[in-house]
What does this fold into?
Amino acid sequence: MLDQAPLINAFLTIASTIFVAELTDKDALLLLTLATKTRAWVVFAAGSVAFTITSTIIVSVGYLLVSVVPVSLITITGGVIMIAYAAWGFFGAHDGEEREIGEAERRISADTSRNLWTVFLTMVSFLALLDLAGDATEVLTILFVARFENTLLVFTGAVCALVAASAVETMIGNRLSKFLTPERIRIFSTLVFLVIGTTAILTALFHL
It folds into this structure.
């Protein structure tokens, strides 16, 4: 019988890390806001579908990168990018990001008077585009593809993490927004990305 412990440990590492990172990402603010304006289950379903689509794209990109670029180089580059995200958060360079989220919120809110399918599809498209437009979880997913070289494992772990984060952000709604204020998310994301980036670089350099 094959030892499943390494596979389980890898899955838990992927899922837990991406889950924490997603709670600190810009998607969290949009999902929290949308959950206060429309039905939570619609927001959750839209987030789940959008993140499944984006995870498929990002894991595929990671697979292609691993096939042509040395894993150590991908890991170090990814670590540097994560540290850059941490610095970005520390120095508060979020005006453009807040405008992007605000615009998405306004566009989606304008559709709430239409039928449910229109609202759902609008949410899916905006969440997917926001997630693909320079999201930290993308880099993290590619790092895991490089580290474990198992696209199915990373895809499953990433989707489970993102769906779970969507559930937390939408089903708790207003109560969670009292704790996950923009300022707290920025501080937490700075710490999370700094730890992830530093760990990735040290792992690549010293084969930890």
Observations:
- The CA atoms of residues 71 and 146 lie 6 Å apart.
- The chain has a mean pLDDT of 80.
